[in-house]
TrEMBL record:
FAD binds at residue 219. Keywords: FAD, Flavoprotein. Belongs to the GMC oxidoreductase family. This is GMC oxidoreductase-domain-containing protein. Gene3D superfamilies: FAD/NAD(P)-binding domain (3.50.50.60), Glucose Oxidase, domain 3 (3.30.560.10). It comes from Roridomyces roridus. Residues 87-110, 261-275 form the Glucose-methanol-choline oxidoreductase N-terminal domain. InterPro entries: FAD/NAD-bd_sf (IPR036188), GMC_OxRdtase (IPR012132), GMC_OxRdtase_N (IPR000172), GMC_OxRtase_C (IPR007867). One of its GO terms (molecular function) is flavin adenine dinucleotide binding. Pfam families: GMC_oxred_C, GMC_oxred_N. It comes from the Eukaryota. Its cofactor is FAD. SUPFAM superfamilies: FAD-linked reductases, C-terminal domain, FAD/NAD(P)-binding domain.
C-alpha cells in the first residue's frame, strides 16, 4: 500500500461499522481517498476468523482478537470485577462475534427517533437492515441481495429439542416473533464462511488503491484547527501510534469519522479534549468541547452461560470448541473441501425472545412489576430475555469436557435497567480504561430456567451454575474471582440525542461543538436494542454512509 499525502476521509477505528461506511462510500466513488486506522491486525482469509466454529476457541484463547476490559469491582457482583471483551482487528466485533443473527425490535428504532433523531425510525432503518443482507432462510421483510449472507443449517438436534420443550411445556409464555425458532447465523451457506464486514465491504475492494487500511495502529487523538477565533474548531486529521510506537499525524480534507466502538470512541474523544471538564482538567488535557455525556450511558445485555451434561450419542461441537488440532482437523478438512459440516456452525441453533406470563410476573415481585408496566407493556415487541442453546460447553474449564459431552443454555436480559460508564484514566492510548458497567446494580434485572426439561439433559455441571443468596432471584453468587456477565452487546457511550439531554452527536452523527467530526458505531445508540447488536451496527453503518454520501454529493447504490 502506497500511503497518500492527504485523505478525504479518515476512520479512527476499523471495526464492524467503520467497514460498512467506508466500503459503501468507496464503492460509490472510487476516487474518494479513504484511510481506515485500526488498532488490531488484518483478518483477511485467516481461518480463526472465517471458519465459523473456531469463534469459541479464538475468544477463549485470550489472544489479540479482542480487547479485554476489566471493570471496577462492584457490590452487585459480590465485589468482583467483570471482564468485557470487545472486538479488535479489521472488521472489529464482526470477525470475532458469536455469529448469532437477531434483529432489533422496531420500537427500539422508533424510540431513537422519538429522542429527537428524525430519519432514525424503524420505517427508515429496517430497509437499511435489508440492504445489508442476503437472508437465505425463507422469510418476508428481509433482504435478498446485500453483502452479508445469513443462513441457518442446524448441525445438531439440541436446538430443536429446546424448541420442542418450549412448545410443549411452556404454553403460557409470551414471546416476540424474532427470534422464536431455529436461529439464523452470519454464515454463507454457499461457502460456509463467516459473513463479516471486513471481507464483504473492504477486502472485496482491494483493487481500489484509494481505499487504504492501516492495521496495528492506535489512534491517540483528533487534530483540530480553529475555523475562526471564537468559532468552532474543525477536525483536520488524527494522530496515531504505529506498532513500533512511532507517533504519526495524518490529515483529512473532508471528514474524520470516529468509529472505534463503545469503549474506543469515547476514549478518543476524551483524549482529544471533548468530554467532562473535570475529567479533562484532572488529566491535564486541553478542553476543546465541554461535553460531559461522553463515556456515560454505557449499556449492554447481561448474559449467563449455564452448562449441562448430555448423552454421549448426542452431536455437539465440543471437539471443535475445546479439541486438539487432531480432533479439529477432519472438520477443517471438510470445510476446506466444500464449505459444509460442523465447522460452518456456531452451535447456537435455537432461541426464544421471551416475555413473562402472569404467574411469573407475580414471582418477580413489585420492583420488576413497575419496570414491566412502564417499559415493556406499552411496547409488546420488546422481549425481556433471550434464552437459547449452545451445542457445546460454553465455559473455560477444560477439565469439564474431559470424557463428557455438554450443552449450554444462554440467558440474556435484553433491556437491563442498570446503566454504566467508561472513561479514560490517563492520556496514554494503551492504558486500561476506567469501566463501571453497572451490571445488576438495579434489582429489576433477572433470569429463568428450561434446560432440565430437555431430553438430552444428563445433569448440571454444578461447578459453573450461579449460586444465589437464599431468598434472592437476582443477586450474583459470592464466589471469588472475576465474573463473565456481559453479552457483550455494548453500546451507548456517545449517544445520539439533543445536547441538552446528554447527547454527544446529533442525528447526522456530528459531534457537538466541532466541525467535520462524526461518530459512527454502536456508541451512538441512545438506548438499548432487544437483539444482539451486530445487526444494528450494520444498520448504523448503512445509515452513516447515506448521511455522508448526501453531504458530499455522492450517489449511493440503493
Ligand atoms: C465476543 C463478542 C461476541 C459477540 N456476539 C455477537 C453475536 O453473536 N451476534 C451479534 O449480533 N452481535 C454480537 N456481538 C456484538 C457485535 O459484534 C458488535 O455489536 C459490533 O461489532 C459493534 O460494532 P462497532 O463498530 O460499534 O465496534 P467494533 O466492531 O468493536 O469496532 C471497533 C474497532 O475499533 C478499534 N479501535 C478501538 N480503539 C481504537 C484506537 N484507539 N485506534 C484504532 N482502532 C481502535 C477496535 O480494534 C475495533 O476493531 C459480539 C461482540 C463480541 C465482542
Amino acid at each position: 500500500m502506497q500511503p497518500l499525502e492527504t485523505y478525504d476521509i479518515i476512520f479512527a477505528g476499523g471495526g464492524a461499522t467503520a467497514c460498512v461506511v467506508a466500503g459503501r462510500l468507496a464503492e460509490a466513488d472510487p476516487t474518494l481517498k479513504i484511510l481506515i486506522i485500526e488498532a488490531g491486525k488484518h483478518t483477511k482469509d485467516d481461518p480463526i476468523y472465517v471458519q465459523p466454529a473456531r469463534f469459541f476457541a479464538n475468544l477463549a484463547s485470550g489472544g489479540e482478537s479482542c480487547f479485554y476490559h476489566i471493570a471496577k469491582p462492584s457490590e452487585a457482583l459480590g465485589n468482583r470485577p467483570c471482564i468485557i471483551p470487545s472486538g479488535r482487528g479489521v472488521g472489529g466485533g464482526s470477525v470475532v462475534n458469536m455469529l448469532m443473527y437477531t434483529r432489533a425490535s422496531p420500537s427500539d428504532y422508533d424510540d431513537w427517533e422519538a429522542l429527537g433523531n428524525p430519519g432514525w425510525s424503524s420505517t427508515d432503518l429496517i430497509p437499511l437492515s435489508n440492504k445489508a443482507e442476503t437472508f437465505e432462510p425463507h422469510a418476508t421483510n428481509h433482504g435478498s441481495s446485500g453483502p452479508i449472507k445469513i443462513s441457518g443449517i442446524a448441525q445438531t438436534k439440541i436446538g430443536s429439542e429446546f424448541l420442542a420443550v418450549a412448545a410443549a411445556r411452556d404454553k403460557e409464555r409470551g414471546h416476540t416473533q424474532d427470534a422464536n425458532d431455529l436461529l439464523p447465523t452470519y454464515v454463507s451457506s454457499e461457502t460456509g464462511r463467516r459473513s463479516d464486514t471486513a471481507h464483504h465491504y473492504i477486502y472485496n475492494q482491494s483493487h481500489n488503491e484509494n481505499l487504504q487500511v492501516l492495521a496495528h495502529c492506535r489512534v491517540n487523538r483528533i487534530i483540530f484547527e480553529p475555523v475562526l477565533r471564537f468559532l468552532n474548531d474543525r477536525a483536520v486529521g488524527v494522530e496515531y501510534h504505529t506498532a513500533h510506537d512511532k507517533s504519526v499525524e495524518v490529515y483529512a480534507s473532508k471528514l474524520v469519522v470516529v468509529a472505534a466502538g463503545t469503549f474506543g470512541s469515547p476514549s478518543i474523544l476524551e483524549r482529544s479534549g471533548i468530554g467532562s471538564p473535570d475529567l479533562l482538567k484532572a488529566l491535564d488535557i486541553r478542553q476543546i468541547v465541554d461535553l460531559p455525556a461522553v463515556g456515560e450511558n454505557y449499556q449492554d445485555h447481561n448474559l449467563l452461560l449455564v452448562p449441562y451434561h448430555t448423552s454421549e450419542d448426542e452431536q455437539t461441537l465440543d471437539e471443535i470448541f475445546h479439541g486438539s488440532a487432531e480432533q479439529i482437523k477432519p472438520h477443517a478438512d471438510q470445510w476446506l473441501r466444500d464449505g459444509t459440516g460442523k465447522m460452518t456452525s456456531n452451535g447456537i441453533e435455537a432461541g426464544i425472545k421471551i416475555r413473562p406470563n402472569a404467574q411469573e410476573l407475580q414471582v418477580l415481585g413489585p420492583l420488576f412489576a413497575r419496570r414491566w408496566q412502564e417499559f415493556f407493556v406499552p411496547k409488546p415487541d420488546k422481549p425481556v430475555m433471550f434464552i437459547g442453546t449452545m451445542a457445546a460447553y460454553g465455559g473455560g474449564n477444560s477439565a469439564a469436557v474431559a470424557g463428557r459431552k455438554m450443552f449450554t443454555v444462554g440467558y440474556f436480559t435484553k433491556y437491563p435497567a442498570s446503566i454504566g460508564r467508561t472513561h479514560i484514566g490517563s492520556q496514554d492510548p494503551y492504558a486500561p480504561l476506567d469501566v463501571e458497567p453497572g451490571f445488576l446494580n438495579r434489582p429489576e434485572d433477572w433470569s429463568r430456567e428450561m434446560a432440565r426439561r430437555m431430553g438430552c439433559f444428563r445433569g448440571e455441571f454444578v461447578a459453573e451454575h450461579p449460586q444465589f443468596h437464599a431468598g434472592s432471584a437476582a443477586i450474583c453468587g459470592e464466589a471469588e474471582g472475576p465474573v463473565g456477565i456481559d453479552a457483550p452487546d455494548i453500546l451507548g457511550t456517545c449517544p445520539m440525542k439533543p445536547r441538552a439531554q446528554g447527547g454527544v452527536v446529533d442525528s447526522k452523527l456530528n459531534v457537538y461543538g466541532v466541525k467535520n467530526l462524526k461518530v459512527a458505531d454502536m456508541s451512538i445508540a441512545p438506548t438499548n436494542v432487544g437483539s444482539n447488536t451486530y445487526n444494528t451496527a450494520l444498520v448504523v453503518g448503512e445509515k452513516a454512509a447515506v448521511i455522508i454520501a448526501e453531504e458530499l454529493g455522492i450517489k449511493l447504490a440503493m
